[in-house]
Design goal:
Chain B: Belongs to the eukaryotic ATPase B chain family. Chain B: This is ATP synthase subunit b. Chain B: It holds the Pfam family Mt_ATP-synt_B. The complex is a heterodimer. By secondary structure, chain A is an all-alpha fold. Chain A folds into 2 domains: about 50 residues; about 30 residues. Chain A is about 55% helix and about 0% strand. Chain A contains 4 helices and no strands. Chain A is extended and about 55 Å long. Chain A starts with 19 loop residues before the first helix and ends in a 9-residue tail after the last helix. The relative contact order of chain A is 0.05. Chain B is mainly α. In chain B, β1 and β2 form a beta hairpin. Classes of the chains: A mainly alpha, B mainly alpha.
Chain lengths: ~90, ~230
Amino acid sequence: LCAAVPLKDMKLLDVKLGQLPTWLAMRDFTPGGILGALRRGHDRYYNKYINVKKGGLGGISMVLAGYVLVSYIWSYSHLKHDRHRKYH
Amino acid sequence: VLHTRRPLHTTQQRLAPLPPLPEKGGEVRYGLVPEEFFQFLYPKTGVTGPYMLGTGLLLYFLSKEIYVINHETVAAVCILSVIIYGIKKYGSDVAAFADKLNEEKVAKALAVKNEAIKDLETAVEQEKKEQWRVEGRSYLFDAKRNNIAMLLETNYRERLLTVYNEVKKRLDYQVAMQNLKRQKEQDHMIQWVEKNVVQSITPQQQKDSIAKCILDLKALSKSAQAAV
């Protein structure tokens, strides 16, 4: 069952921690590769949560939550100045 | 290697019919965290593991002020409470409405399909009926043959009648000719006899006949007078 799958074809969750840098280096970083990876990720999410007969709230709420998180991270350098204490 | 839930393209490529959509999407707890995360942590930490992780992370962010509490936090709390209240109150209604729309779409497609099936079935029945009708060809041809025979017979009899009439006309003509000839001969002979008789009456004979007539008349008048 665990045949000799070449490293670059293995899924991320099957990659051992030590092999992570090599695995990351072997990924396809050309623009076409990046686009393909984005499309694959989008299709996976879409087919799992949105393209179903009875979709629920979770499908879009997760996207919105992710958007909120990313915008918070991007504006953290401005929010740093609103901290109540200087030393934590 | 595709990361998909359902096996795709396992057999030869088919464009139709597509496999049906899955009934429900992936499970999401509290609308934010997919169920797979809870299952991932279950073997190691049991049921409360992810909640403890969430609480710990929250307290860490608050204490280290990675998440700062400012006016935006108040705004976010108000907005979120309104949103959650709205969802809790009207969620099921909206879901039912969306389901109804979906249902109508599917019902329309189904209606089209059933319509097409019905049309094809009626077409098949009509085709069978036509095939049954073809079996009656022999009767049709018999009737046609009878018709033609009757036409021929009628035509033949008409022509017989024509022939008969023509022949009769010719024979009548001959008969009429003979009658006419005989009549003309008769008339001519009568005329000739009369002419000769009138010629043969000499004037002397005429005076004698007139005298005789007068005598006869006198005798008659005498007898008549006697009767009166």
